[in-house]
Amino acid sequence: MPHSRSSHGLLAIYPHITGRDRQIMTLLDDHQVLTTDHLTRLFFLAPRTARHRLAELLALDLVDRFRFARVGGGTDPYHWVLGHAGQRFQAAARGEPEPTARASSQRIARLSASPRLQHLLTVNEFFVRLREHARRHGEATLDRWWSEQQAKQFKSSKAVINPDGHGLWSRGEQTAGFWLEADTGTEPLTRVVAKLDGYRRFASGGGPRYPVLFWLASPTREEHLHRLLRAEPAGLTTVTATQDADPAQAVWLPSDGTRRVALEQLPSFHGHNSPANPNFINGVLHLHS
């Protein structure tokens, strides 16, 4: 039986896909949306080269893009997502049924109209800064960048947690895991602090004991949050920094301290060896993506 035109269509793109292109598609698959600036900082040496290559991937339908008008005129930067061919390619890589053109279009439309879009971009900006720093400084590495959905791989007998992201950050011989809570300034801080009880119960149920990083929209929010954190029970490491700071530097202020520290200086316990802990593979601690 001859192959359909659509099945040949995706295969015909393969000679045009580079290793970097596959990395871009995997990142968009995992983290949904990245701006032109994000992708330039992660994968390219010059903005012009990034724009040119992204335009080529757009023409191949491997990626798609959207942007919004700005108040007062002009437009935001392009936001990049997987196009239909890119979604098909990633589904094939995962061994899953490929989406229809309609399903791909609906996915893009839902994402572009999502009220959580700005929050998602804030989370992704945090990890982009870490990876960009690691790209420019050989002594540091972002060993793991997991989205909210990927972090659900962690299980505990006592609680379910929903961090905005999870990462492993190394510098030299020091590796620290963390849970990220990114703040856009729209949620009451009392509700933010209320999430900590779940992290405590999660750790007591055998899950990893990682510090909770609050990445805050302003110094005022940070100051107000610290007042609340100081009243919290001991046993959970919480630190704060503002979004105008480089998260790879010593900018993290512990709730029980007065001196800012770097991520790799934070205490981390990677949890017990169990099927519910993805840090262990076949009983061996595996601290990578």
Structure overview:
By secondary structure, the chain is of the alpha+beta class. It is 39% helix and 17% strand. It has helices spanning 5-13, 19-31, 36-43, 47-59, 84-94, 101-113, 117-136, 189-194, 196-204, 219-229; strands at 34-35, 63-66, 79-82, 140-147, 165-171, 174-182, 212-216, 238-242, 253-254, 280-281, 284-285. Helix 3 (36-43) crosses helix 4 (47-59). The chain is globular and about 55 Å long. The model is unreliable at 1-7 (pLDDT under 50).
**SSE string, helices as H and strands as E:** HHEHHEEHHHEEEHHEHEEEE
Largest sheet strand order: 4-5-6-7-8-9
State mean pLDDT (0 to 100 scale).
Answer: 93
> Major sheet, described briefly?
6 strands, mixed
**How many individual β-strands?**
11
Helix share, percent: 25-40%
DSSP summary: helix tally: 10
| Dominant shape | globular
**Strand content range:** 15-25%
The rounded distance between the terminal residues' Cα atoms is 41 Å
- What structural category arises from helix and sheet content? alpha+beta
Uncertain parts: 1-7
Gyration radius (Cα, Å) is: 20 Å
